[in-house]
Design brief:
The protein is mainly α. The chain has twelve helices and two strands. It has a two-stranded antiparallel ribbon.
Length: about 250
């Protein structure tokens, strides 16, 4: 398949994407590319753009940045993202960064320099730089039936973790009730799986409750931001540079 707007084959786009990931020391670059092509594309079609034609057809990084900004504002998108251990938001960021990377831009330089291409390099460059996102129909709310598998999360196990450690971030010590007031922030915190729930088919934790840790939204995002995958609680605590509040109950690393 060739992208009609750019003339670049999907295979070359994927190869450049994988090379960009490997330059960031992502050991699972091929798996990330597979997830971006399939699961992320389905996520975008389901929640953001039903007419989305695929990551190798839409090459405007602003498009993916807009979807990232929608996730915290759309409860269904937010729930799906959290159910996937924040994979959708992290893969959106990785692909948006790729579209601004030298690996992506070199595709067009090599194409322009090719003797087999009968295209003016100045015209090609101007077309690439000035290309604007396609206009989208301003509508939403249509219903459609979608079937997909998702790992079940047991609310009783989540509550048992909160009963044991409270509603305080186990990294920075933030308490939402203290920060935002009781009316808004009481009994609010995110809960992170130290062993990803997506790996439970391969091996299950010895203690489901101890596999969970309460984290504020910032720390929860950062624990998933490790270059080699999610960080451990110890690694997150060591990386944190902000002001730390004393923990009432401290979970061991």
């Amino acid at each position: 398949m060739i992208n009609k707007k750019t003339g670049v084959e999907a295979e070359k786009l994927r190869a450049a994407f994988v090379a960009n990931l490997e330059s960031k020391r992502k050991s699972n670059a091929e798996a990330i590319a597979d997830f971006t092509e399939k699961e992320l594309a389905d996520f975008i079609r389901q929640y953001a753009d039903a007419s989305f034609r695929g990551v190798y057809a839409e090459l405007d990084h602003n498009y993916y940045d807009r979807i990232i900004s929608q996730i915290p504002l759309n409860q269904e998108m937010k729930d799906a993202n959290e159910a996937a251990e924040l994979k959708y938001s992290s893969h959106l960021k990785l692909y948006s960064m790729f579209l601004e990377s030298k690996h992506f831009k070199l595709l067009f330089k090599s194409r322009i320099a090719s003797p087999n291409e009968q295209v003016s390099s100045s015209k090609e460059t101007a077309h690439f730089v000035s290309r604007k996102p396609k206009e989208r129909e301003m509508t939403e709310g249509e219903k459609k039936h979608v079937e997909f598998e998702t790992a079940h999360r047991n609310p009783k196990i989540r509550q048992a973790c909160l009963d044991k450690y409270g509603y305080q971030c186990q990294c920075c010590g933030m308490d939402f009730a203290s920060t935002y007031g009781e009316e808004l922030g009481a009994n609010f915190i995110e809960v992170h799986h130290l062993q990803m729930i997506s790996t439970y088919d391969e091996s299950r934790p010895e203690d489901y409750v101890e596999n969970l840790v309460p984290l504020c939204s910032n720390c929860h995002s950062m624990i998933h931001h490790g270059k080699q995958g999610p960080l451990s609680l110890r690694e997150l605590r060591e990386a944190y540079r902000g002001e730390k509040k004393p923990l009432i109950i401290c979970k061991q690393d």
